[in-house]
Amino acid sequence: MILYPAIDLKDGNCVRLYKGEMEQATVFNDNPAAQALAFVEAGCEWLHLVDLNGAFAGEPVNGAAVDAILEQTKVPAQLGGGIRDMATIERWLNKGLARVILGTVAVEDPTLVRDAARAFPGQVAIGLDARNGMVATRGWAEETDINVTDLARQFEDAGVAALIYTDINRDGAMQGPNVEATAALARAVSIPVIASGGVSSLADLRALKDTGAPLDGAISGRALYDGAIDLKEALDLLKA
């Protein structure tokens, strides 16, 4: 399993939200590129970036911060938030992103996801953000009546690189991930699944690993900034 340290970008800063609420943002670093470099120097082999403003605006907002991260680090990075057309997908991948994450358009324009996955093999992931098992879109502000697993199965044959499953009620709350739901999703589809939301201890990472489900990795944010997870121990655990 891969550990993906999360760098959530709001107004040019590296922040963490509490349960997806933009008003409840804690700034952890006003230099996202320096934070990214610190993660890489500590041994992280991937970066998970989110343009929070972009998720609400429907277009990239924190582009300068992402550019700086890509310039200063040499590990693959994936980015989500406000990526909703082919031109934006192409622009980001041309700038050096390893993977774009499409969330809202997976619900609103699934054809775009399929076209992008076909045009850029291995470089398109889907962000599945859910409250109580139902998908939420547009920066988690809009709820749908679409079941997470049902939506995931629609893309089984699309060539999508990964599914990033976030339980919104766990995100930033330091209460542990939804291990059962994450493992169930990983078993229900053939697309690699990345766990997100609430990963706040080594025990959480161990619990995800011990499910035996074919998980690609886990994303953690606040716990890495707060020191609740020792980064070296986490990397060793997931590599073992």
TrEMBL record:
<dbReference type="GO" id="GO:0003949">
    <property type="term" value="F:1-(5-phosphoribosyl)-5-[(5-phosphoribosylamino)methylideneamino]imidazole-4-carboxamide isomerase activity"/>
</dbReference>
<keyword id="KW-0368">Histidine biosynthesis</keyword>
<keyword id="KW-0963">Cytoplasm</keyword>
<dbReference type="GO" id="GO:0000162">
    <property type="term" value="P:L-tryptophan biosynthetic process"/>
</dbReference>
<feature type="active site" description="Proton acceptor">
    <location>
        <position position="8"/>
    </location>
</feature>
<keyword id="KW-0028">Amino-acid biosynthesis</keyword>
<protein>
    <recommendedName>
        <fullName>1-(5-phosphoribosyl)-5-[(5-phosphoribosylamino)methylideneamino] imidazole-4-carboxamide isomerase</fullName>
        <ecNumber>5.3.1.16</ecNumber>
    </recommendedName>
</protein>
<comment type="similarity">
    <text>Belongs to the HisA/HisF family.</text>
</comment>
<dbReference type="Pfam" id="PF00977">
    <property type="entry name" value="His_biosynth"/>
</dbReference>
<comment type="pathway">
    <text>Amino-acid biosynthesis; L-histidine biosynthesis; L-histidine from 5-phospho-alpha-D-ribose 1-diphosphate: step 4/9.</text>
</comment>
<dbReference type="GO" id="GO:0005737">
    <property type="term" value="C:cytoplasm"/>
</dbReference>
<dbReference type="GO" id="GO:0000105">
    <property type="term" value="P:L-histidine biosynthetic process"/>
</dbReference>
<dbReference type="InterPro" id="IPR044524">
    <property type="entry name" value="Isoase_HisA-like"/>
</dbReference>
<dbReference type="InterPro" id="IPR013785">
    <property type="entry name" value="Aldolase_TIM"/>
</dbReference>
<dbReference type="InterPro" id="IPR023016">
    <property type="entry name" value="HisA/PriA"/>
</dbReference>
<keyword id="KW-0413">Isomerase</keyword>
<feature type="active site" description="Proton donor">
    <location>
        <position position="129"/>
    </location>
</feature>
<dbReference type="InterPro" id="IPR006063">
    <property type="entry name" value="HisA_bact_arch"/>
</dbReference>
<dbReference type="InterPro" id="IPR011060">
    <property type="entry name" value="RibuloseP-bd_barrel"/>
</dbReference>
<dbReference type="InterPro" id="IPR006062">
    <property type="entry name" value="His_biosynth"/>
</dbReference>
